[in-house]
Amino acid sequence: QVQLVESGGGLVQAGDSLRLSCAASGHTFSRCAMGWFRQAPGKEREFAAAISWSGGNTYYADSVKGRFTISRDNAKNTVYLRMNSLKPEDTAVYYCAADLRPWSGNWAARTPGNYDYWGQGTQVTVSS
């Protein structure tokens, strides 16, 4: 079992920054690949970013590339998503997810069904 708890969401203006955190417990976090997904009202859950167990591999959706940065601190069992230059279209509930495998490649990283555990989500709202 892996428990994931996201935090750091909120209401910001366009152009602002936020850093989301996802604290993990219950399994060997350092051996898990991690992903961030988001879901806007009325839309399907979509991939945002992923990182391998060591941090050596990262992968981003085109919509966030260059603005978002995923990172992890295995000593703190935490993965982060730094979001810069936020846009109204970034408004969504953001979820972190854990893949019990260290890294399965980009296609797997962007596929929700590849992940074994999910957090409850944190709301990010960007006003124009």
SS class: mainly beta
Give the proportion of residues in helices: under 10%
Q: How many beta strands in the DSSP annotation?
A: 11
Identify the quaternary structure here.
single chain
The coarse silhouette is globular
Termini gap: 40 Å
The low-confidence parts are none
Biggest β-sheet strands, sense, barrel:
7 strands, mixed
Strand content: over 45%
SS summary, helix count: 1
* Element-level helix/strand string: EEEEEEEEEHEE
Q: Average pLDDT value?
A: 95
Write up what this structure looks like.
This protein has one helix spanning 106-109, and strands spanning 3-7, 10-13, 18-25, 33-39, 46-51, 58-60, 68-73, 78-83, 92-99, 117-118, 122-127. The chain is 3% helix and 48% strand. It is globular. The strands form two sheets. Strands 2, 4, 5, 6, 9, 10 and 11 form a seven-stranded mixed β-sheet that branches. The protein has a four-stranded antiparallel β-sheet with strand order 1-3-8-7, with no helix packed on it. The mean pLDDT is 95. The N and C termini lie far apart (40 Å). The protein is mainly beta and 128 residues long.
